[in-house]
Design brief:
alpha+beta, Uridine Diphospho-n-acetylenolpyruvylglucosamine Reductase, domain 2, Uridine Diphospho-n-acetylenolpyruvylglucosamine Reductase, domain 3, Uridine Diphospho-n-acetylenolpyruvylglucosamine Reductase, domain 1, five-stranded antiparallel sheet, 7 helices, about 25% strand
Amino acid sequence: MDSNQKNILSKIAGSSIEFECPMSQYTTFRVGGPAEALYRASDLITLQKMVSILNQEKIPYLIVGRGSNLLVRDKGIAGVVIVLEKSLGAIEVKDKNSLTIFVGAGCSINTFLTMCLKSGWSGLEFLAGIPGTIGGALAMNAGAFGQEIGNNVQKIDLIDRQGQLLTRDKNSLNFHYRKLMIDQGSVIIGCYFQLEGQSKLIIQKQITNYLKKRKLTQPLDYPCAGSIFKNPANDYAGRLIEEAGLKGTILGGAMISEKHANFIINTGNALAKDVSSLITLVQEAIENRQGIKLQPEIVVVGKEV
């Protein structure tokens, strides 16, 4: 961005935009260089203006929730990182009878599940323990324990590249394994979920069980980004990595978890290049051993070193 473009963005966003913002503060890996700009979007109209201008000026932008499925390279990100918050994370009952609930993309999964428990809404308990936002979960079609968020979606609100608000119903949405296919440059604003009524006791029990399973099998005490690789057909990435004897492998400050082989953890002083190097090491080892090229589940962004 040049100085004129920065001035234009500052006029739109005011104090909600900052420049040269370290992304290590916005990812669960706790690594990554600075974003050229970071915009905290708190209202729909201003966000629409921002998206429109960014496209007019050909400035790249990236929507980030809690950064729980993201690896930012050490050189940082060119363009604008957009974080949705405040009114863009609201929860609203649209239809009490059918239990249609609208959830803003900026709402954290934990906040929404707390509301589900309080209100007796069931269907998304399997998301318990995922440190992300609803928008991020939709974009990645987040899933666990054999379930996916896309199964409960009725329709999604989004902004297109021109800043126009659109609604897409389930029939026009393409959910795939760990991915939702939408037009490039679109911004997910919120989702209408179809949930079911259930007793709070049962919902609490389900959430507790899922959290226990995560704690037993995942290295939750270290900064990480969840599962690194997608599971190949009819197999598990973690099993392949463990079978290859790669558990505990260390490069710099990054380590393949000894608790779950499909997790890479930041032991305290990792750089993004340490994580990237481990990803490459695993891919090459598994391809040489099994003939399988593991595909990353996490999103890697930023300027190459």
